[in-house]
TrEMBL record:
InterPro entries: DUF5648, Thiol_cytolysin, Thiol_cytolysin_ab_sf, Thiol_cytolysin_sf. It comes from the Bacteria. GO terms for molecular function: cholesterol binding. This is Thiol-activated cytolysin family protein. Pfam families: DUF5648, Thiol_cytolysin.
C-alpha cells in the first residue's frame, strides 16, 4: 500500500496594511508638506515648534546563542524599531480618536495618548471617500466626538447609488513575544482589548509551537480633514503646550478588521502558506483548490480572532479551523446601509507643519530559528494485519490507526544524512524502512525515499531501534531500547536501524 506525501506550496503573502514609508521633512510653509496647492502655513503660530524626537527605525541582532544540546534550533536576541504612518485602532468607541482631535505628541509612543483639552478651535471641514452619494460628502463643524458622529451620520444617511468598492488585504507575520505582537499589529493604544486572545500562548524559548498573527483589513471608506491653506487650526498660544508640536487626527479609516492569532505545532512556513491559500480561496470564491493538508494545518491549530466592523460588537472569539476562517473572510463583503463598518485606523499629523506624525514602536524579543528540513514523523498501525507505518502526514486514510508522534527526520537530503527507503509487501501487510536496499524475501515493492537519517550518531540524534514480530510479520521503529507491552509478540530486537531526532 503506497502512501502519498503531499507537498505544501510555499506561497508568501505580501499585502502590507501599515505603511512604513519615510516622510519627507520640510520647513514651515513649504507646500511639499501636504502636497496641496496654495498651502502656505503662514498664519500657523505653531509652525516653528519642534517635533518630538523619535528613535531611528531598524533591526539589531544583539546575540546569537545555540539552544540546548539535542535540538536543531538557535536563538537570536533581536531589537526591532518600526515606524507607522497609519495606526490600527483596537477600540472603535474611543473618545480620543476623531477628526481634529489634539494629542500631546510625547505621549503617542508610550500608548498614553493624552488629549489636549480647553483649546480654542477653529471650524474644520471633513469629507468622506464614498462614491455615488446623492448630496454633499463634506461637513464643516467645530471638532469634537459628538460633532464628528453627527456629521458622519448626516453624510451616510443620504441616498447612495451603486456598489461601493472595498480594499481587502491580509498581512501574515510570525511573532515571538507579546511585546513584539504590539509592534506587528502596529499599536500600543488600547492593546488590552485583545490581550485575552493570546493569554494561553506558550512564549517560552523551549516551546515547539509556532505563533502567527494574520491582520485582515477590509476598507470601506475614509474620512479626512481639509488642511487650511494658512495652516491654522486653533487660536491658542503655542507656549501653553510645551516644547513640542502637538499632533492631531487627520484621517480615519472605516471598515472591517480581523486579527487572527494562531498557535500551531507546524513550521512558520507551513502555517503562513496555509493561511495564504485559505485567504485566497475565500476572496476568489473557491476557484483555488485547497488540499486536505492545508485544511488540517488550520484545523489542528489554536486560533482566536479579534473582530470588529461586522455584525455584532467587537469581540475576541475562537475560530474552529479552516471552514470558520474562510467564512469569516467571506462575510460582510461590502459597504451597505446595514454594514457601515467600524473605525479601523487613523493617521496623525503635526500641528506645526501638517506633515505625517509617525508612530515608532520598539520591541526586544528572542527569535527561535529551527532547521525546517527536520519535520515530525508520526506512527500508525493497522489492527487487522498488525502492520506499522511511519510518515510525515498526521492524518492517514481509514486503513490506519494513529498512534502519535514517533520521532523527527529530514524531509530532504542534507550533508551527512542518507535516504531511508520504504518497502511494502502487500501479501503480509508489511512495511520496512531501510538504508540497506531491498529486504530479504520476495514480493517487496519500493515506495521510494521516506526520509533521510544518519548511519552514525551525530549531535542531537538518538538511536532508532527496529523490532520485529515473526507471528505478525510486523516491523516497529522506536527510540525506546525495549518494548514493555506485548514482550512475547516482538520476537526480535534487530538493533539500531538509523539515528534521528527525538520528539523533545
Amino acid at each position: 500500500m503506497k502512501k502519498t506525501m503531499y507537498a505544501l506550496p510555499l506561497l508568501m503573502l505580501a499585502f502590507a496594511v501599515s505603511c512604513k514609508k519615510d516622510v519627507r521633512e520640510t520647513s514651515a510653509g513649504n507646500s511639499e508638506t501636504t502636497g496641496k496647492a496654495g498651502f502656505t502655513n503662514e498664519n500657523n503660530q505653531f509652525r516653528f515648534m519642534k517635533k518630538f524626537p523619535l528613535p531611528d527605525t531598524g533591526v539589531q541582532v544583539k546575540s546569537s546563542d545555540p539552544m540546548a544540546r539535542g535540538t536543531n534550533c538557535t536563538v537570536q536576541t533581536v531589537t526591532k524599531t518600526a515606524g507607522y504612518d497609519e495606526n490600527i485602532l483596537l477600540n472603535p468607541n474611543s473618545d480620543i480618536i476623531y477628526i481634529g482631535s489634539l494629542i500631546k505628541s510625547e505621549t503617542i509612543n508610550s500608548g498614553a495618548y493624552t488629549p489636549l483639552l480647553n483649546v480654542t478651535r477653529k471650524p474644520i471641514t471633513m469629507s468622506v471617500s464614498l462614491q455615488g452619494v446623492q448630496g454633499s460628502v463634506a461637513k464643516t463643524y467645530l471638532p469634537s466626538v459628538s460633532a464628528q458622529r453627527t456629521a458622519l451620520n448626516d453624510i451616510l444617511n443620504q441616498k447612495i447609488t451603486g456598489d461601493q468598492p472595498s480594499e481587502v488585504s491580509m498581512e501574515v507575520n510570525q511573532v515571538y513575544s507579546e511585546d513584539q505582537m504590539k509592534l506587528t499589529i502596529g499599536t500600543k493604544f488600547e492593546y488590552s482589548k485583545i490581550a485575552s486572545a493570546t493569554a494561553n500562548f506558550d512564549w517560552s524559548e523551549a516551546s515547539q509551537k509556532t505563533h502567527v498573527v494574520a491582520k485582515f483589513l477590509q476598507v470601506y471608506y475614509t474620512a479626512d480633514i481639509d488642511i487650511p491653506n494658512d495652516g491654522k487650526l486653533i487660536e491658542d498660544d503655542p507656549s501653553k503646550f510645551g516644547p513640542y508640536s502637538p499632533v492631531y487626527v487627520s484621517s480615519c479609516t472605516y471598515g472591517r478588521v480581523g486579527l487572527f492569532f494562531l498557535e500551531s505545532s507546524k513550521s512558520q512556513k507551513e502555517v503562513k502558506a496555509a493561511l495564504t491559500i485559505a485567504y485566497k480561496a475565500a476572496v476568489t470564491s473557491g476557484s483555488i483548490e485547497v488540499t486536505t493538508e492545508v485544511k488540517n494545518i488550520l484545523n489542528e491549530s489554536t486560533i482566536k480572532v479579534y473582530t470588529n466592523g461586522g455584525s455584532g460588537a467587537d469581540a475576541v472569539k475562537a475560530i474552529a479551523g479552516y471552514e470558520e476562517f474562510v467564512n469569516f473572510i467571506k462575510q460582510g463583503g461590502r459597504y451597505s446601509i446595514n454594514s457601515r463598518g467600524a473605525l479601523l485606523s487613523y493617521k496623525l499629523r503635526y500641528l506645526s507643519d501638517h506633515s505625517i506624525a509617525r508612530t515608532v514602536l520598539t520591541s526586544t524579543y528572542n527569535v527561535r530559528t529551527c532547521d525546517e528540513t527536520i519535520s515530525q514523523l508520526y506512527s500508525f498501525r493497522n489492527d487487522q494485519d498488525g502492520d506499522h507505518y511511519i510518515g510525515f502526514v498526521p492524518n492517514m486514510d481509514s486503513y490506519w490507526t494513529y498512534e502519535g508522534p514517533a520521532f523527527k527526520a529530514h524531509r530532504m537530503a542534507v550533508d551527512g544524512a542518507y535516504p531511508v527507503y520504504c518497502y511494502s509487501r502487500r501479501a503480509n501487510g508489511e512495511h520496512v524502512f531501510s538504508m540497506g536496499g531491498t529486504p530479504d524475501g520476495s514480493g517487496w515493492i519500493s515506495e521510494g525515499v521516506a526520509f533521510y537519517a544518519y548511519k552514525t550518531q551525530v549531535e542531537g540524534t538518538v538511536p532508532i531501534y527496529e523490532f520485529y514480530s515473526a507471528s505478525g510479520t510486523n516491523h516497529y521503529y522506536t527510540p525506546a531500547s525495549t518494548i514493555g507491552s506485548y514482550p512475547g509478540y516482538w520476537t526480535e530486537r534487530r538493533g539500531v536501524a538509523f539515528y534521528l531526532f527525538p520528539n523533545q
